Amino acid sequence: MTDNLLQRSAGFVLLREIESVRASVEAYPDDASLWKPMPGISNVGGTLVLHIAGNLRHFLGNVLGGVPYTRDRDAEFSNRTATKAELVRIVNETRDSVAATIPKLSNELLAKPFPLPIAGRTVSTADFVVHLATHLAYHLGQLDYHRRFVTGKPVVVPALEVRRIPEV
């Protein structure tokens, strides 16, 4: 067990939620349903997956972890052609990128300012890592609701399972 509690906790939450994104994608019945617009919902499932992946791979994997990745944020919101299989592959690549970065989140790194300005401001790396985890959870909830609306089925995926929190 690490003595870096934020590294341990944020790492656990990020990887758990990324796995929930993958499970959510797999719960869609087909490729087309991921891209089906619904009234009152601005982002469809496929868009949410691409945005989650792009955000994490850029800020965590690339900026903090040094994992090569070039973000195309515009494509995250304009691509409407990715299949379920492609999205699962992207989620798996995201998981690998984040998993490679978590061990690098030392207390020293977390105490420093994040290497890039965020919304034109300097923020702490620790605060931004927590933000990235909550941003992921927010969009995971949107993904879950989009899938439920599209399918008409309240299928539960293993998201945010309390029993998966490590025991001390």
Defining key terms:
59% helix; mainly alpha; Four Helix Bundle (Hemerythrin (Met), subunit A); 168 residues; 6 helices
If you had to describe this structure to a student in words, what would you say it looks like?
There is one protein chain. The protein is mostly helical and 168 residues long. It has a single domain, classed as Up-down Bundle (Four Helix Bundle (Hemerythrin (Met), subunit A)), CATH 1.20.120.450. It has six helices and no strands. The longest helix has 27 residues. The chain is globular, with a radius of gyration of 16 Å. The model has no long low-confidence stretch (mean pLDDT 93).
Q: Would you spell out the secondary-structure blueprint of this structure?
A:
Elements (H helix, E strand, L loop, with lengths): L4 H23 L17 H20 L8 H6 L5 H18 L5 H5 L13 H27 L17
Helix pairs in contact: 1-4, 1-6, 2-4, 2-6
Helical percentage: 55-70%
CATH top level is Mainly Alpha
Fourth-level CATH superfamily: dinb family like domain
Task: Note the gap between the termini.
Answer: 9 Å
Number of helices: 6
Gyration radius from CA atoms, angstroms? 16 Å
Domain count: the total is: 1
What's the short version?
The protein has 168 residues and is an all-alpha fold. Helices cover 59% and strands 0% of the residues.
